[in-house]
Batch of 3 targets.
Target 1
Amino acid sequence: MYQHFHLPHGLHSTITVPATDTSKPLSQIMLRCHQHILAVCLMVAVLLAPSAEAKAKATSAKAGQKSISILTLLPQGPGTVNLGTAGDFAILAKAGVSTVPPSVITGDVGVSPIAQTAMTGFSLIGNPVGTYTTSAQVTGRLYAASDIAPTPVKMTAAVGDMEIAYTDAAGRVNPDYVEHMTGALGGATLSPGLYKFGTSVGFATDCTLSGSPDDTWIFQIAGDMSITANKKILLAGGALARNIVWVVAGKTEYGAGSHFEGIILGATSAEFFTGSTINGRVLVQTAVTLQQTTVTSPA
């Protein structure tokens, strides 16, 4: 006759004790059962436990996931360009700013070293202090080198910062893209990075800049830059105009009804045709002309 003892918790193992063992004290029988159960449990634990190799792979996978997550969060593109006090202006020019009304400008407008008379079409409104003027077309103030102190010092500093920013942006090295699409960027989707062009750049169709709110773009353009009428620069993925810099050695032109995004650092002029718009800043070293143009400073 045999007695059978079954393991608990559904473990499929049976301990069979010869009948002769039943003459022994129950404590000895239970001890043998416990020893057998312990041995089986240890065997199961070994079988179910992950191997050292599996643990290493799991640890490596987790580390890889963390690395990918961290990499994804890092900003892409070149270092930002410090505009200094030039960044206080929606439009800043050395040789004048003219408008064919009504233009809509959100932000300050400034000229230096030229006098206030170089700001035309604004129907300027004086103020008792004389350090700035206002206009129905400008949500902000208009400053000129000929205004009462301390404005001349303010404007000299702003123009100096504009020139420093231009030199910085134009002098960046190790571009990510050289002569990308030979400068015909219409229809392109542009990733963050430093772009360098030895000639002119044009947008005959819409162009998209795609990146995160922290990503940056710098476009170094040795020639002119222009966008065709009714075409647009579009932003995707959270990209922000304040992180996009167009540093242009030649003139820039914006066709009627066109829309642009970013900071313009121009060595010469910027001409906006009827109904054109820009979300950004226009900082140039000669003159700006507006024709019922909307200029909005980026946040």
Target 2
Amino acid sequence: MTQDAGGAPGAAPQPQTPQDPQGAEPAAGQRPAWDDPRLPWAGRPRRVDILLWAGIVVSGVYYWAMLPFRAPLVGTHPVELELLNGSTEAIVAAAAFARLGHGTLAVVLLAALPGLMKFDWLYWLAGRLWGERLITLLSGKRNRGHKYMRRVQRWGRKFTWPAVVIAQFLPIPTAIIYAVVGWAGMRLITFLILDAIGTLLWAGMLAGLGYALGHHAVVVAQAISHYGLWISIALVVVIVFFQVRSQRHMIRTAAQARPAATGGRASPAATGGQASPAAPGGQASMAAQAGDEAGS
């Protein structure tokens, strides 16, 4: 590729100076080094991006690490288990023990606050920091996050405030709700107050169930703890199986999508080494998979 030297007509053509690779736009069909659709940010990550992403990863690792302890502790130390991960069975068992005189309902409800809320603020902050891109990742194929975003734009706090309160009762990952309200601009103190109210309502419902069951729930919890090791092993095996199958499906889908993304485009060799300019708007498509941290 040549251009007239100095722009003067009739001058001898000179080879065009190659652009700096770091400043050049990526060729069509080529994804920039930092443009990974599995990550919630676009471009090179900042320090805050890395720290927040690490915190979310740690919350997921913490959830998996707690799985082997759920069955052994539910019938022996349910309040401690409730503090650790706020699981449904821990709250029910703790309230059942309280009816038999081992503890009080007030302790059961208070223990549920840190057990259920400890990582919620991470998703609120992630929604405020990464916005729509994160919500798309969390929503997956059903794209439920964008439905809630449209409701936020239509109703504002009339939607966001009740959504946080009832998030524990909805059949969707609470992380989506927390990310949406963070994106909508809800203040942290408001979010924490509403989240605490919703957590107490959820824990109160479960505690009421456990208190009503009383001795029967205690017997079941103690039986689970007796066989806790085998139950934990079976749980881990089942979870690992489904995770491996899900990862293989994602890899297969990505491999099938790659030829379609580059199909019909001429290679650099076919065009004499000249790459076509990148299409406006970028090439990366959004895909996501997320789990809900709260044990249910």
Target 3
Amino acid sequence: MNSQDASRRRAYQLRLTAEYPRNFFKHPATHLLARSEVECGTAANNFMDDSMSDSQKTVAIVDDDPEMRSSLATLLGAVGYRAETYDSAETFLICASSCKASCLVIDINLGDITGVELAHQLSADGLKWPIIFMSGHDDAAIKNQVSAVGPVAFLHKPFRGNDLIDAIKKAIQ
């Protein structure tokens, strides 16, 4: 690499660090972002409305994968949302009555209780949130179960960061 290329690269890095929170690119959440989102500067710009209340900015994430929970929480934090993370449907059910989230992001395959079963249990308990489901499995039976719940969105992993943010914005309107 010649010195001109090195200078361009350093200028590019400085521009990125000015646009994104510290350590944004070192965290696993960046694997959810398409390279074009990061390079174009769209991943962290203009996602939040400053008039939103704290509860409108809170998103509950229910996923049994600790890396996915951490990645999503970091992504949401980078664009101004507060994330509450739960490692299972059972854990979320214990805390559900006091949860102040404006919407839920739920993995389908959680273990003993699936994401769809969690949604049905919440509904039976009289607790209503807009729900965004996510799954790494592209299965017709799962899609039918999910559509019966009436989610805001169903995201197939891996998904673009912007797709999640757009779904959250739709959920909290």
